[in-house]
Structure formats: C-alpha cells, structure tokens
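To: structure desk
From: M.T.
Subject: fold request, one chain
Message: Could you run this one when you get a chance? Sequence is below, nothing fancy, just the single chain.
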Amino acid sequence: MRIVSLLPSATEIVCALGLGDQLVGVTHECDFPAPVRALPKVTRTLIPTDASSAAIDTLVRDRLGARSALYALDEAMLERLHPDLIVTQALCDVCAVAEDEVRAAACRLPGGPRVLNLEPETLDQVLACIADVARAAGVAHRAAEVVGSLRARVQAVVERTGGAARRPRVALLEWLDPPFSTGHWNPELIRLAGGEDGLGREGAKSVTLRWEDVVAYRPEVIVIACCGFTAERTMQETGVLARVEGWAGLPAVRDGRVWVADGAAYFSRPGPRLVDSLELLAHLIQPDRVVLPPGVQAPIPLPMDRDRAED
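Reply: Done. Structure tokens follow.
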C-alpha cells in the first residue's frame, strides 16, 4: 500500500504502526520520526511562518473570513506518488488542507485512492484513530499493541497523580498574541496529569482569551505551547508578556512555574505523542510524583522578572 499523510499526527500514527516504509508523501510540517523529513512534500503553507504571532493570527483570520486557503496542495506531486490511501482531517481549518479539497483532488487521481478523515476531539478518540488507520492500511491487528502500550502509560500517570493532595490551577496556552486556551484533548490531559483547567473545556475547541481572563484565573502553573512553534520559536514571542497587567503577580510567575514547551511536537498533534504530552504535563504539575520520562523534550523555564514581581 502507498500512503500519503496530509497531517503530521497521521504521519506519526502511520509510523507507530510500523508502516513507515509504505509512506510515500507527507506535508511540509511532518518532521517526526526523523526519516519522514526526506519524503516528498505534497503541501506548502500560504502563511509566512516567520511573522509575529499577532501578524499570523490576523492573516489566518482574514483568510478564513474570506474562505481562502491556508495551504496549497501539490496535485501534480500527489498524482506522481499514486497513493492508495490518503489520510487527512476536518477537525481544524487552521491545521491542514481542507477535507473537501483533498477529496476533490483524490477523485481526479487515477485509481481513486481511499481518503480517510480523522477527527478526534478526546484522548480516547485519538487512540481510536490509530485503529482506524490500521484498518484502512490493512494491518488492523497491529493497533491493539500500539494502543495498549499507550493506554498503559496513561494509566501509570493517573495512578501517580490520583492521590495528590492538591490539584493546582493550570493555564495551557496555545497562542500568545492574542492568547488562546487549548481545547479538545488538552483540558483532559491537564485533569489526568493532576491539575485543573479553568480556561479550556474538554472536547471543545480552543478559544481566544483576554489577558484579563488569564490573570483573573490566577494560574499556579503556566505552560505555553504555541501551536506549530518549537519552544525556541515561541520564546521569540514572549515579549508580549511584559505588557500584561498583573502578569508578574500571578502565583505561577512568582513561584517560577512558567514553562515554554514545543507546541509542534506536543499538545497540538492528536497522535501517539499526546501521551508524551501527558507525561510532560504531569511532571510540571505534580513534580514530586512524576519524573520527566527519557526522550520527552524538557520545556524551557521562563525567567521571572523579579523586579516586577517584587513591585
């Protein structure tokens, strides 16, 4: 079978199922595991990635409002790859080529490849998607072992955090200018990791916040994981925090519990590494109970402005 993935999380699912050798094309964003970086790219972004967070947000809103595409699909490359299976999504308009465009392109391809649409909103649904991909690829028997291993890791975290005396208030932000709460599976991850999320809702979309909302919540732990940004790229955007009234007085800031995580690797990709994301969160929220597992990238602690905090 020849598989094309139009979503980084789908690429990770395909590889987790041991189908990396059948993957023939990926998106411009697919970068894990490392070998997929050498595969032909079938998409490109129409949004400048080096723009500021505020500029990217404005461009995305303008293009969505005008019903303009955010990504371009290379149909000529897709035809040359001659896929049997194309894996895509319809969950988020900002994350991938529109499903309708993918299906239309597939209809024009010789042989009529199958299009599998993934649309998970919870952790259980993400794990179910692994079984969906396995079935579509003709290896349904492989899903049980992959999903079973991931569920065992989730259960291990729950057992470690379940007896915690306190569940701190957590703010997991997926954008900074403007601030966004995280949604879908991420509030669930916070709960499983031993924290409370008062800004996002389980199974619901992420929403634009006001900084007043974040400050009023008084989070005791803050994790900044800008969607699609590495931790280093997100650090370039943290200057906006200096303009947030009340930021320095937040418990998380005073206690040095503000971190910048890799939003490209964790939290925003509904695939196997959501369990890595859970383990990372549990370590940050309940450090006395959960250690950072090997292989999970440590977040960058955000330095505290002690002068402002003392004021």
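Reply (cont.): Residues 3-146 form a domain with the Rossmann fold fold (CATH 3.40.50.1980). Let me know if you need anything else for the meeting.
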